[in-house]
Design brief:
Blueprint (H helix, E strand, L loop, with lengths): L15 H10 L3 H14 L2 H12 L2 E2 H8 L3 H13 L3 E6 L2 E6 L2 H17 L1
Antiparallel strand pairs: 1-3, 2-3
């Protein structure tokens, strides 16, 4: 890693107009906390792989367990966390339960982050 010097202001001067404008445009703290929790959940590689897989195809727990060489129990645990954050949903078909992304926004978040990673690699 190369040494990068970060320039800081040499004088303390606050632009209160800018501060007020930004302050008014920031989301409420409750939304910021929920957003942070979403990124925290997606920060786990196993959960992220599950979300990436479900962005491609609706799958059952057994499909996911096979795909990632994990136990059904481990996948079920991760799906429970993802469901709790409303990132995935399920539907029952007889005795089978199929999982998919809760909505298209989740895939969009992942795609944007993936573009960023590719551009910075």
């Amino acid at each position: 890693m190369t040494d990068v010097k970060i320039k800081v202001c040499s004088e303390t001067a606050v632009n209160f107009k800018k501060v007020r404008t930004v302050e008014q445009e920031l989301p409420p703290t409750t939304e910021v906390v929920s957003l942070a929790e979403t990124f925290k959940i997606l920060g786990d590689p196993t959960r992220l792989k599950i979300v990436l897989a479900l962005a491609r195809e609706e799958l059952c727990v057994c499909d996911l367990a096979t795909l990632f060489s994990l136990s059904v129990s481990a996948i079920s645990h991760q799906l429970r966390l993802l469901r709790g954050m409303k990132l995935v949903k399920y539907r029952k078909a007889g005795k089978m339960v199929y999982y998919s992304l809760d909505d298209e926004h989740i895939e969009g978040i992942i795609q944007l982050a993936h573009v960023h990673v590719r551009e910075t690699s």
